[in-house]
Design brief:
- The protein is globular and about 65 Å long.
- The two termini are 18 Å apart.
- The strands form 3 sheets. The protein has a 7-stranded mixed beta sheet with strand order 1-9-8-5-4-2-3, sandwiched between helices.
- With 352 residues, it is α/β, with parallel strands linked by helices.
- The relative contact order is 0.18.
- Helix content is 37%, strand content 15%.
- The protein has 2 domains: 226 residues, Type I PLP-dependent aspartate aminotransferase-like (Major domain) (Aspartate Aminotransferase, domain 2, 3-Layer(aba) Sandwich); 113 residues, Alpha-Beta Complex (Aspartate Aminotransferase, domain 1).
- Helix 3 packs across helix 7 and helix 9 packs parallel to helix 12.
- Bound molecules: pyridoxal-5'-phosphate.
């Protein structure tokens, strides 16, 4: 494809860090760049603890386990999202309960979540969809632990603080299509130091630090490698630049697509969303995507609503019509932080 969906924005610092890690021979987990990445995430997000892990999916699974979520429990997840949050709930043996979205932010609807809450509800996974923060004040009224999934929301904010700063714990993904990347990777952030200790224990094979092979729980290896962290640490030091780059691209698309049959994704007035990938709707979505792809532009239809997939339909107690509607009309356009105005013009040319 002439224009892939996304590209990482990599520079000298990333290359220097990787060379340094290679020269030291420390390419596995727990190397020095892992600590650098964790401390800089804590500072940036104002959280007491950050734990780097091998992916955003691992982060979700381990947070749920550390919260004690398991068989017999329910976790409310939005019906419109990449499937990882629902899959993570199934992986720990609990039941995902699919919840419809707020049409003005495409994030989980607190009112709909309220109607789904039962005495078995152990947590809500609140996904900051495409960089739009959730209504955390509305969700707080549910009085169940919130796990913020900020996988797509590096740099987003509300007036109460940065995305990644909400809930009992939050998770990030640093997959290569994210604004800030380590290739593959993720992180758990929390202000609860006991929860942080449980997460670390589960990430490191269930071995308490400094006690040799005296495993206390059946843990896993969820560690981020020092090589990934070398890239990630450099990227976190460029966080503002990378986030600003994608917001600049979003504004260019907004202007270029005005009055051409596209609606930009909606935003709530209290939110300062970041831009993961440029999102818009069109009533001709499928034809637009097909035309773009014929012209070498990797435009993509968004995910189907989970409630419309055979695998997840049994977990949608009510239907999720708003999620279905967005998934029928919404698409992403190629987005990366160093994308030029000429790139955006060429993509738009292929669409209309
Ligand atoms: C909302 C959401 N949660 C979790 C994940 C999982 O992250 P990873 O791909 O790093 O496993 C993703 C991945 O894109 C995501 O979009």
């Amino acid at each position: 494809m002439r224009f892939p969906l996304s590209r990482p924005t990599l520079g000298d610092q990333e290359a220097d860090n990787v060379r340094d890690a290679m020269a030291s021979g420390w390419i596995s987990g727990t190397g020095p760049y892992v600590g650098v990445l964790e401390r800089s995430l804590e500072q940036r997000l104002g959280r007491a603890a950050a734990i780097a892990v091998s992916s955003g999916t691992t982060a979700l699974e381990i947070v749920l386990s550390a919260l004690g979520v398991g068989p017999g429990d329910e976790v409310i997840v939005p019906a419109l999202t990449f499937a990882a949050p629902a899959a993570a709930v199934l992986t720990v043996g609990a039941v995902p309960v699919l919840c419809d979205i707020d049409p003005m932010s495409w994030t989980i609807s607190p009112e709909a979540a309220h109607a789904l809450r039962t005495e078995r509800t152990k947590a809500v996974i609140a996904v900051d969809l495409m960089g739009h923060p959730c209504d955390f004040e509305g969700l707080a009224e549910l009085d169940v632990p919130i796990v913020e999934d900020a996988a797509q929301a590096h740099g987003a904010r509300t007036e109460k603080g940065p995305a990644g700063g909400f809930g009992v714990a939050s998770v990030f993904s640093f997959h290569v299509n994210k604004a800030v990347t380590s290739g593959e990777g993720g992180a758990v952030l929390t202000d609860d130091l006991e929860l942080a200790e449980r997460v670390r224990l589960l990430v490191h094979h269930g071995m308490p630090p400094g006690q040799g092979y005296r495993h206390t729980v059946a843990g896993r290896n969820g560690r981020m490698t020092n090589l990934s962290a070398a890239v990630g640490a450099a990227q976190v030091s460029r966080w503002d630049e990378l986030v600003a780059g994608r917001l600049r691209v979003e504004r260019l698309y907004d202007v270029r697509l005005e009055n051409r049959g596209f609606e930009p994704r909606p935003k709530r007035s209290w939110a300062s969303p970041s831009c993961w990938l440029y999102g818009a709707t069109s009533q001709d979505r499928d034809a637009v995507v097909e035309r773009a792809r014929r012209h070498g532009v990797d435009a993509r239809a968004v995910w189907p609503a989970l409630s419309d997939l055979p695998l997840y339909r049994p977990y949608a107690p009510g239907r999720c019509p708003r999620a279905s509607e967005v998934s029928r009309t919404a698409m992403w356009l190629p987005t990366w932080s160093h994308m030029t105005a000429e790139d955006v013009d060429a993509v738009v040319e292929a669409l209309v």
